[in-house]
Amino acid sequence: MKRLEKYAAFIDEMTDFYDHYDDEGKRITTLLRASFDANRNAHPQKIKTELIRVLVEESAVHVFKNYPFFHQFSAGRVRKTWGGIGQETSGTFMFCQYGAEAAKYGDALKADRESGRIYCWNNPVGLDHHALNYDNILQCGIKGLRAQAVSYREKCEDSSKLPFYDAAIESLDCLKRLQDRFAEEAEKMVGEATNDDERRNCEMIAAAAKRVPYEPAETFHEALCAITFCREAVGTLEGIGISTYGQLDRMLYPYYSADLANGRITPDEAREMLEKLLCYTAIRFDENNDPGETSTTVILGGCDADGNVVYNEVTELFFRAELNVRVANVKYDCRVSKKHPQAYFDWIYRVQLAGLSMIVLMNDETHIAARVRHGQEERDARLYVAGGCHEIVLGGTEVCTRADTWIGLPAILLDTLKKRDYDNFDDLVKEAIADVQAFILKVEALKNEFERNWAVYGPMPLYSTMLTGCLESGKDAAAGGSKYASTALSMLAPATFIDSLWAVKTICFDEKRMSYHDFIEVVKNEFEGNEPFRQYIINRIPKHCSGNEELDAFTVRILHELSGTAGQTNGRGGKYYPAFYPHDIFRPLGYVTPATPDGRKKGFSLSRGVSPSEIISGITPAHMMRTVRAIDFTEFTDSFALEVTLPKLGEENGKAVLDGLTKEFLDAGGSTLQFNLFDADELRAAQEKPDEHRDLLVRVCGYSYYFVNLTREQQDEVIGRAVRY
Hints:
By secondary structure, this protein is of the alpha/beta class. It is built from 30 helices and 16 strands. The chain has a six-stranded mixed β-sheet with strand order 4-5-6-7-14-13. The protein has a four-stranded mixed β-sheet with strand order 3-10-11-12. The protein has a two-stranded antiparallel sheet with strand order 1-2. A hairpin with a 5-residue loop joins strand 8 and strand 9 (392-394). The radius of gyration is 26 Å and the shape is globular.
């Protein structure tokens, strides 16, 4: 983060607060456990509501004198988390009610985790990467949502649904109480202000906190206050991660344009608010000193529910804000299409060429079509957002639990290869796909066993009021009440999987260079004593994204068959979706996955997204685009990302290069695209003299970070990319 002098007071105030932050976790946990014990025999919805009430009344609220938004309250959420996820305070219900049972999920998959077949958290349900219906919050306010809940309760003839409606109403009242506490604190601080700037800021916060989010927002500032307050408060109170701010340029533009027309705001004032919002994440997560994931996303561009292209002055304000403060890890997930104006793309390239690799490009036409193909309404699909990195969730209508389970395709393939000596390649392929399917069914059965009881041990009445479908159905989000209640198990390392199968085909069935049995033995022995043979496999046999037409056709076949491994019903009554979302998991799974037939040894990273294998070199962007063009990405509902690593580009030719690749990617029907622009020599120099390269930013995978703050293993992996291409 760039330290701007004009924000020195704000940065110093917030930094000092978080450097000495006391989340009061122990005290509040004691109170929550007492509340749980007192209500242990009550309905789960009632138990949860009482826990929310304790958090709202007992947590200390804090208003910053130089920060325009209000959302900081000490409810046991430690400094470097983006919601209540994993915190004992917000998770009291789960810890007390179901902790021991949930641990059985991790135990059941222990051997699979050790072998590289799966990477997963111990918790079997998705507590992260959720999205609120910010549009309803802005347009209806908490008051409107409460009125809806009351109306549905009055009409309800099913007594089993009444506890949910009661909890929804009571939890919204708790949220209003928290809002009032901020208004009271801001008014108190007006009298404690030491200068005019502090006084004006506290007055502005007090005025906003008296209205939003209870009332519908009326101004640009109120809209931002409502969004930031609900994102932080609901996530913390419910014990879930709500990472995304949503499609901010679409939602904020009507307020901005009205304020501008009525003289209530200037472009510079609006931009400064956005800059401080970006800085909040950077300071809270201490991004200048500590490597880590903030999981915070801002969605820009795309379209509205009617399909109208979104690009406006607020979009540009966000780009200007990032260029000024240079925040590493508030991710700009830029939804793009062939319909967007060139000016939008030019801003994207300007930011990337400024050394800010915190942008990812998401192809609207492909993502929307994928969601419609899998049964979701087009109007809803048009409002997709990135939940935490660049994985997809429909804003306000979907609870899609994912980014918590990754299926290691290469390790499963190794099991298949060892089962017997295959004398027919098609038989091997069919059995490999069947084994992937069988393993996925195993994981799904375990997840469903726990997910069916999610609403018993972890109901989310407050979150449910802010999702389409829950009030209408009278069901908690944890019980499948949202309009869409999906799950995505992300398969990992398609290139490693495909290249390994292709190597077996080439060596054993086409060239007959070695018998099947002998080749598998060589692989099992980590190619020991067979280095020339391993290099032959790596350098002479075609690889994914190398531009080989026959292999591209095989890739299409394999991906199509893998997409068919999903479709089952989850524990909430929704569907399992096929997905390839790597995050940073391709590295740790690579550490434990034994050698694979493509020439990769144990300890080397697996492949990422739709990108080529980490062990090969010489793949050009043209080769990648040829493969991308062959694949039907609408078969997968999540973000199937391609990374293109390029040398540093000057402003003169950089725009043309990035524009050409981006437009070709869109024309090819790709899913998600991210660029890394760096030179291997500069990266090596940064390893040797980190103090001279503090601002060097790289895209790790689903997030970006300062290179010098990454682990040595991460640094070496990033350098490897620069060397290969």
